[in-house]
From TrEMBL:
Cellular compartments annotated: Nucleus, Nucleolus
Family designation: Belongs to the WD repeat NOL10/ENP2 family.
Top-level taxonomic group: Eukaryota
Domain Nucleolar protein 10-like N-terminal: 1-364
Biased composition (Acidic residues): 528-538
Chain segments carrying region Disordered: 528-559, 632-688
Species per Swiss-Prot/TrEMBL record: Grantiella picta
Species classification: Eukaryota, Metazoa, Chordata, Craniata, Vertebrata
Biased composition (Polar residues): 632-643
Biological processes annotated in GO: maturation of SSU-rRNA from tricistronic rRNA transcript (SSU-rRNA, 5.8S rRNA, LSU-rRNA)
Claim: Lipid biosynthesis is one of the keywords in the record: no
Name of the protein described by the UniProt record: Nucleolar protein 10
Annotated InterPro entries: Beta-prop_NOL10_N (IPR056551), NOL10/Enp2 (IPR040382), NOL10_2nd (IPR056550), NUC153 (IPR012580), WD40/YVTN_repeat-like_dom_sf (IPR015943), WD40_repeat_dom_sf (IPR036322)
Gene: Nol10
Length: 688
């Protein structure tokens, strides 16, 4: 699947990739798919969706189930069933098809206009009837209310063929010398035809009279357009009851309101090629116009470009699948293109998996590579002397750098470094010399990291190779050549620290194991040399010797491990002494502590007491609280324990309580003195 983007509109080409020839067998096709990645990754939405040489017209049935296309060579029509995603039938014809029309909802009624003035009718089973018109036809339209076919061509007359009566009716006489295209409005059935003189004539089929005339050739010429010759009408399409789009042979598209003789908007393709097809997209109010080189989608109100597509081959016809974002084209190539544009609408129901596929592609976007442009950073521009181009049209800002034309980059690089070719030549010569050196006998070079470990592995591999040669065993893979362990000999972070505690404790064991392995290898070599592998007594002797040696080895390495531990302890003591000396030599600076509000500073002893108290067990703390009187533990009648706590009060609360206590005492003394005075006065009155 090929993805392109213009104006932030993603277009997925579902027919991109190589196609396999028809004459290949299924077995060869499967073999090619296994070998070729491009063939395996392609998406074949509809099987065999192509023509032998060229496809000229493509249409969709009204029910949306069938896609019909005509092409050459030989002249033929192919019908594809979308529900089966494959070809339903193929019919060959006598002459090439100019255009065709599907009269029924499915493929059961088809009319073909052929080059040899023939009109051929097909039914569901195949060819039904064939007739001929007086002049060469170029286009025709079907009038549903009266069952009339209107043919236009190399004549001033419009031929009418009634399918209900099965005969030709009186033709319509026009002022044009020739007519190229025609269309019937689907709402009020107005018949319009485009002439070679660049005019559009509108006829009423009920009265068979002309009701309007538009001079599109004069309206298509604006101040910005440059045309050669008189533009003729090459495409015509109605939209609703009032709108009509007209395409000219010089590459302009005119949008008309039938109530006005002046176009609402004129859109130029700027290629000077005849407009082949015009389609309306109602969801986004777009007009899809196509010439043989490009397909343009633009807003019908403003004329602003929405997006465009330029296929590899020339375009003959464009078909928009109804109510979806799928677009199909007939090309000057065997393969018919299928495009999916999610912005225009969802995928058709018969290929709804495209929505999930495109969503996954958007979640995992692939990096875009531009062949004609070079990505450079600001530093690269400064080295090339092109920093003054920042902000100009020659550089396009992108992420942390810029895109510039590859030709400009090469020129600037040649001017900045004229001896680049000489350096390139020297580098190539150096590479050739190194390739020849690689064929010579090479010495084993030790890596920069873990040299001792690498040397040990090399020696062990050499010993194992000798044994495997004698026993004719397969060699095991080398750790030095294994990519999984390559970083261990390249990255300095993996360097073995021989001064670490773990290494010093394990080193005696590792060294003893390696020595034991070497002894065992020597014993095996001696046994093989003497040819005593199958005898039992020597094996028993060897095992006894090995067991005695292993017990001695175990005692030896245990002692070494103990010695290493003693050394480690001594080193730790030395380090502690050095730290104490450093602490004594260092001058202590005063530290300041913040006291919370409502607290008073007493001394640092309180904090020390608290720390000591926290270190004690819960039982000791409870006993201490009982002594201080803040805790009272008593037995209950049930047999359980009851503990009563008294919360400690802060200094501020204690002062407040003392002040309240003094205040109460003062009030009591005042009351007593007042009551004493009253009693004395009362006694004085009695005596008086």
């Amino acid at each position: 699947m090929q993805v392109s983007s213009l104006n932030e509109v993603k277009i997925y080409s579902l027919s991109a990739g190589r196609s396999l020839p028809e004459w290949l067998s299924d077995r060869k096709k499967r073999a090619l798919q296994k070998k070729d990645v491009d063939i395996r990754r392609r998406i074949e939405l509809i099987q065999d969706f192509e023509m032998p040489t060229v496809s000229t017209k493509i249409k969709v049935s009204r029910d949306g189930q069938y896609i019909m296309a005509v092409g050459t060579y030989k002249p033929r029509v192919r019908c594809y069933d979308t529900y089966q995603l494959s070809q339903k039938f193929e019919r060959c014809l006598d002459s090439e098809v100019v255009t065709f029309e599907i009269l029924s909802d499915d493929y059961s009624k088809i009319v073909f206009l052929q080059c040899g003035r023939f009109v051929e009718f097909h039914s569901q089973h195949g060819h039904y009837y064939k007739t001929r018109i007086p002049k060469f036809g170029r286009d025709f339209s079907y009038h549903y209310p009266s069952c009339d076919l209107y043919f236009v061509g190399a004549s001033s007359e419009v031929y009418r063929l009634n399918l209900e009566q099965g005969r030709f009716l009186n033709s319509l006489q026009t002022e044009a010398s020739e007519s190229n295209v025609c269309d019937i409005n689907p709402v009020h059935f107005l018949f319009a035809m485009g002439t070679a003189e660049g005019k559009v004539e509108c006829w009423d089929p009920r009265t068979r009279n002309r009701v309007g005339l538009l001079d599109c050739a004069l309206s298509s010429v604006t101040a910005d357009t440059e045309i050669e010759g008189l533009p003729s009408i090459s495409a015509l399409k109605f939209d609703g009851a009032l709108n009509m789009a007209v395409g000219t042979s010089t590459g302009q598209v005119l949008l008309y309101d039938l109530r006005s003789s002046n176009p609402l908007i004129v859109k130029d393709h700027h290629y000077g090629l005849p407009i082949k097809s015009i389609q309306f997209q109602h969801q986004l109010d777009l007009i899809i116009s196509a010439d043989s080189r490009i397909i343009k989608m633009w807003n019908k109100d403003t004329g602003k470009i929405f997006t465009s597509m330029e296929p590899e081959h020339d375009i003959n016809d464009v078909c928009l699948y109804p109510n979806s974002g799928m677009l199909m084209t007939a090309n000057e190539a065997p393969k018919m293109n299928i495009y999916y544009i999610p912005v225009l609408g969802p995928a058709p129901k018969w290929c709804s998996f495209l929505d999930n596929l495109t969503e996954e592609l958007e979640e995992n976007p692939e990096s875009t590579v531009y062949d004609d442009y070079k990505f450079v950073t600001r530093k690269d521009l400064e080295n090339l002397g092109l920093a003054h181009l920042i902000g100009s049209s020659l550089l396009r800002a992108y992420m942390h750098g810029f895109f510039m034309d590859i030709r400009l980059y090469h020129k600037a690089k040649m001017m900045a470094n004229p001896f680049a070719y000489e350096e390139y030549r020297r580098e190539k010569i150096r590479q050739k010399i190194e390739e020849t050196r690689a064929q010579r006998v090479q010495l084993k070079k030790l890596p920069k990291v873990n040299k001792e470990l690498a040397l040990k592995l090399i020696e062990e591999e050499g010993e194992e190779q000798q044994i495997s040669r004698k026993r004719k065993h397969k060699n095991l893979p080398s750790l030095l050549k294994d990519d999984r362990f390559k970083v261990m000999f390249e990255n300095p972070d993996f360097q073995v620290d021989e001064q670490s505690e773990e290494f010093r404790l394990l080193n005696p064991l590792v060294s003893k194991i390696s020595e034991k392995r070497k002894r065992k290898l020597k014993v095996l070599e001696e046994l093989e040399a003497q040819g005593q592998e199958e005898e039992e007594e020597p094996e028993g002797k060897a095992s006894d010797a090995e067991s005695s040696e292993s017990s001695d080895d175990e005692k030896g390495w245990v002692e070494e491990v103990r010695n290493q531990r003693k050394l480690l302890r001594q080193e730790e003591k030395l380090k502690r002494q050095e730290r104490l000396k450093e602490d004594q030599q260092t001058l202590l600076k005063p530290q300041f502590f913040e006291i919370k509000e409502g607290e008073e500073f007493r001394s640092f002893k309180d904090s020390a007491k608290k720390q000591k108290l926290m270190k004690k067990t819960l039982e000791d703390r409870l006993k201490l609280e009982e002594k201080l009187g803040t805790l009272n533990v008593s037995d209950t009648t049930v047999g359980s324990k009851q503990a009563t706590f008294k919360l400690k009060k802060s200094e501020q609360q204690r002062k407040q309580q003392e002040a309240e206590k003094r205040h109460r005492q003062e009030r009591k003394t005042l009351r007593r003195s007042a009551s004493h005075l009253k009693s004395r006065r009362g006694r004085g009155r009695l005596f008086n």
